[in-house]
Amino acid sequence: MIKTNTVYQIEKFYEGMKKYWHPVCSFKKLKYKKIIPIQLLGEQIVILFLQGETAALLDVCKHYQAQLSLGKIDKFKGNDCIRCPYHGWAYDRFGKCIDIPQINKKISKNIKVPSYQTCEKYGIVWVCLDHNSKSEIPDLPEYDDGNYRKINFFEKETTKTNVLRMIMGTLDNTHFPWVHGGILGSKGKINQSKNNCNFENNYLKVIYSIEQPNNLVTFDQSDELIEKSKSVNIKYTNYVTINTIRLVKSGPSGNYSIWLSSCPNTFNESTNFWIFSRNYDKSPKKDKDYLDLAKTVRLQDKVVIESQTPKLLIPFNSKIGIPIMSSDKPIIEYQKWIEKLGII
Ligand code: FES
Ligand SMILES: [Fe+2]
After folding, report:
1. From the CA of 30, how far away is ligand 2's center (Å)?
2. Which residues contact 152 (CB under 8 A, 6 or more apart)?
3. How many CB atoms lie within 10 A of CB 271?
4. 87 in helix, strand or coil?
5. Taking CA 59 as the corner, what is the angle to CA 53 and CA 63, rounded to the nearest 5 degrees?
6. Sign of CA dihedral 5, 6, 11, 13
7. Report field, pTM of the whole predicted structure over 0.85
8. For the structural domain made of 22-128, what CATH number should be given?
9. pLDDT above 80 for 193
């Protein structure tokens, strides 16, 4: 019988994830569209660009619960607002109702839709549903480092899995020869490298070295000085937080960094925001080749990750899986950590 998650597990996940920042949409797209409806931790939220600022409101009108995101951006007494499509009530970026066209008197300050913290970083709009949260947006040092060429790849389609499984699948390294044979591993060649795992400044840091095939993401293919062998030794240094992972691959030409932050739309659906950085072979003309390779890897992973059930990761001791203590160490550490944080 296929296992499904219980209502208790789902509610616990939503509650546990509320205090973290989650990536929700491209900032560039928001500036252009002004109104973007999204789902975050099962809540319907509208992301807005009002008065030159980002804002996030519950996407439900106080009057008769119509979806605000079906409305439009308007102006009322000089202030930008979103106007409900049903009877025209207008709300400012803090969710306060500032105009009710059917009445002509002062509006109670209690007429307000919930608003949430937002900010912009790495070209992404982030939302945190908990006003008292002290959590921080995960690091991406390559982003402001002029030595790196960066490519954004913000997926339009959701992935039918839970964010925790998405991060776990990106941290897992023993699947390389099976799922990414010829790109990240060689079929039949099992990775038995030693995984070094420890916790550093709120990150799970995982280091290992493995042999990978010769291609764009192992070293600069145009470098005449590098001997073109069949495989090359790559050192991975991974930094993992709840919903984000940064994999820094160090090879003979320099570093190739893969950063993934995944938005938990619901317990069984996620949206991936990727940023790839490299400090070698930096010509913009080469971006397409790097992106194509990343997309190929992404699609290979998608098939297996979406097949995993139950969708939401459950506690380590649930006995649903049979982890191998040595080779699965990084993902075991991640799962136990998430459990300790009260998310699963
Ligand atoms: S439901 Fe929004 S104004 Fe009536
Ligand atoms: Fe993979």
Report:
1. 30
2. 26, 123, 273, 274, 275
3. 24
4. coil
5. 115
6. negative
7. yes
8. 2.102.10.10
9. no
pLDDT digits (tens, 9 = 90+) for 120-162: 999 999 999 999 999 999 999 999 999 999 999 999 999 999 9
- CA-nearest of 1, 30, 202 to 118 is 30
The candidate with the shortest Cα–Cα distance to 205, out of 138, 146, 144, is 138
* Alpha helices for the chain (secondary structure H): 7-17, 27-33, 163-171, 176-179, 287-307, 329-340
Phi, psi torsion values for 298, nearest 5 degrees: -60, -45
Ligand 1 lining (C-beta closer than 6 Å): 61, 63-64, 66, 84, 86-89
Phi, psi of 118 (to 5 degrees): -135, 160
- What spacing in Å lies between the alpha carbon of 89 and ligand 1's midpoint? 6
- Residue pair 115/95 in contact (Cβ under 8 Å)? The answer is yes
**What is 141-340's CATH number, 1.20.1260.10, 3.90.380.10, 3.40.50.720, 3.40.50.300?**
3.90.380.10
Which amino acid is located at 198 in the chain? N
Mean pLDDT (whole number) for 25-37? 98
The atom of ligand 1 lying closest to the CA of 61 is 2
Asked whether 35 and 46 are in contact (CB, 8 A), the reply is: yes
Please name the residue that has the structure tokens 């459990």: 339
**Domain locations along the chain:** 22-128, 141-340
- 4 Cα distance to chain centroid: 23
> For helices 287-307 and 163-171, what crossing angle results, to 10°?
120
Pocket test for ligand 1, best of 59, 82, 86, 107 (most atoms within 8 A of CB): 86
The long-range contacts involving 26-31, CB below 8 angstroms and separated by at least 24 positions, are 26/123, 26/124, 26/125, 26/152, 26/154, 27/54, 27/120, 27/123, 27/124, 27/125, 28/123, 30/54, 30/125
Distance in angstroms (rounded) separating the CA atoms of residues 94 and 57: 8
How far is CA 290 from each of CA 172, 173, 215, 297, 308, rounded to the nearest angstrom?
A: 21, 20, 10, 11, 28
CA 176 to ligand 2 center in whole angstroms? 6
